[in-house]
Amino acid sequence: MKLIAPSILSADFTKLEDEIRAVESAGADWIHIDVMDGHFVPNITMGPFIVEAVNRITDLPLDVHLMIEHPERYIPEFADAGADLISVHVETCPHLNRVIDLIQCSECRAGAVLNPATSIDTIEWILEYIDFVLLMSVNPGFGGQSFIDNTLEKARQLKQMIQTKGLSTLIQIDGGVNETTIREISAAGVDVFVAGSAIFGSKDYHQTIKNLKEKM
User: Any idea what the Cα angle at residue 186 is, between residues 183 and 192, rounded to 5°?
Assistant: First the structure.
């Protein structure tokens, strides 16, 4: 089953509750929450208090993407705030097994994130321990960027690695997902599609999510 995870980074925060309820009723499967610290990426966004607020609004799984240095310091806070899935960048985790174990001990599903230029070889020996891999198809930090084309080959190779190991690990993709790109991305083996401006920048969330699901 393939899933759509609208990223609230592109939502109108003056009416965040309405935005979340709108995408939920429009057929969203997860809510994606981008957390940025202004150090690992050149932007500052949400913290645990936003996750807690969103958790009060929706029953959809909350997919928290930590684009931060030293994520292990904050994982318990995000789990307590209501995160269902937490993903961390391999580039920030020299002891990735330990961080993944911390996420799972916090009763969340655990994901490893790869920046566009980071090889899938970096997760080969942890793949069996994680629930999903998030492939960044733009350089993280800002919404509305264009899809980096060679991410398709990266997704295909990752899918082959997962199948060879006999695993059920999900592949998620974030960046440049829209009605033009989603069909080819899906064909490359991706399971979960993070879409921000493609959804929240559209006039009809229901029709946009319907179109995305039909094309994937």
Answer: 125
**pLDDT 10s per residue in the chain (216 long)?**
899 999 999 999 999 999 999 999 999 999 999 999 888 888 788 899 999 999 999 999 999 999 999 999 999 999 999 999 999 999 999 999 999 999 999 999 999 999 999 999 999 999 999 999 999 999 876 666 788 999 999 999 999 999 999 999 999 999 999 999 999 999 999 999 999 999 999 999 999 999 999 999
Half-sphere exposure of 174 toward its Cβ, with a 13 Å CA cutoff?
34
- DSSP secondary structure of 111-170: EEEE-TTS-GGGGTTTGGG-SEEEEESS-TT-SSPPP-TTHHHHHHHHHHHHHHTT---E
Active site residues: 34, 174
Burial 44-59 (b: 16+ CB within 10 A, else e): ebbbbebbbebbeebe
Give the separation between CA 88 and CA 169, rounded to whole angstroms: 15
Domain ranges (residues) in the chain: 3-215
Topology given in CATH for the domain delimited by 3-215: TIM Barrel (3.20.20)
Q: Are 75 and 65 in contact (CB under 8 A)?
A: no
